[in-house]
Amino acid sequence: MTKERKRPIRIVFYLNEQEQALLEEKMAEANIQNREAYIRKMVLDGYIIKMDFTDVKRMIWLLSNATNNLNQVAERANETRSVAIADIQILREDYKKLRGMAMDLAKKLAMM
Fold it and tell me: What is the pTM of this model?
């Protein structure tokens, strides 16, 4: 007894070598290894959007560093009941970097 397929309709088509190479290139760009899944997605939706999260990852890393710096300053302030000007300047610089990256990222997303 065979199990019924989820998709029982089979479609077959042929490609030449150049088309096959282009198909593989586009699959790699979309980071999809399953050829049938890629073709089905393209046929049904017409496009695949691949997002580059490099800037977001960098922003998260900077945010983590800024959070760690803030926690260290808060601990010192609680222990000594004072805060060094240099610590405040470091926090301000971290904030400026984060704000700049957030603004750049927002501009990139708005252009999509």
Answer: 0.49
